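User: Predict the structure for this protein chain, please.
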Amino acid sequence: MDFKQYFKSRQGEMINLLKELVQRESPTSDKRAVDACSAFLVDQFRKSGARVTRIAQKDFGDFHLLEYPAKSDRDLDGEILVLLHADTVWPVGRIAKMPFYISGPKIFGPGALDMKAGLVLAVLALRTLSTLSIRPAKKITVFINSAEETGCAEARDLIARQAKRADKVLCLEPALPGGALKLQRKGRLCIRLETVGRSAHGGSPEKGINAIEELAVHLRKLETLKSKDVSFNIGLIGGGDQANVVPEKAWAVADIRFWNSLQKTRVLEAFRKLEPRERGAKVKFSVESSTPPMEKTKASVRLFEEAKAIAADLGLALEGGKTGGGSDASIAAGLGVPTLDGLGPDGDGLHADDEHVLLPSLVERAALLVELLRRL
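Assistant: Here is the predicted structure, written as structure tokens:
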């Protein structure tokens, strides 16, 4: 069957579903909003015959685990894990400034590319398997994360447990601009650095210990971590209460990215070596979140070659590349499980006002996903 032509005839259905998901805004920090979006989403999966398990969360949106076919089938040999996330970086209300609209081949909207278009692909792929009575090559398990954008220890643990059971992992994060898959990703550390000094009157600063000045010294020292392979960004900073008071406390949060585990070790060692400059001052750090790097493995390269051959049968040329952004695929790849990332559609403007999906790519990736699930 020509699945490219099949999904081209159903692109109106895909656009409508994408619109429904984009308009259900779902920032990671708003549990109610994410849960509302996820409830709509999992209902679409249920209609395709998937069995849904909700994993309740207190601080984040609930996680969901889907199984397809819903009933046990002993003849299916192995398991494919599909990774999705329903949360976005955009706050509720952003849709008023970034409305969902179509201009030529581009579909705009907050979260449209990252990764609500990937959610559409997963729904349509299972719907197609069910509607056309196509038997998948393996049991399909889908994990829907609600805290991918900021990271969550429980989500990482769940993904790791599911990945260990799977033969292959497919992540529907957006493709690289131009359509390439992501064979390598940078790992990420989000580290909070805190300094403590001693308060005093601003007119007699020598009687105190300025925590902000102490913090600045350490931040300048940590800047030496920057290289062509390691990025270091101070994204948040704060300290003090009033201009005429020597600040007792100060803090900063850094986003640090790296290509391999050795670089991660060196970063953490640099933080451990920090010692107070001023006598009586204190300095400490804590890791707020951590995502492992997605390093290129032989297992994932072999899976990529399989996917490349399947894509060629569809008349699609599949390429591979790397990116500095992180994803849940890194967790699975780090366990040695063959993993493909960036199987979502092509587009641009990730986390930016011009975020958009390319409609032709949405159609092509839907066709590719069905073939992967059918043949891998």
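Residues 187-291 form a domain with the Alpha-Beta Plaits fold (CATH 3.30.70.360).
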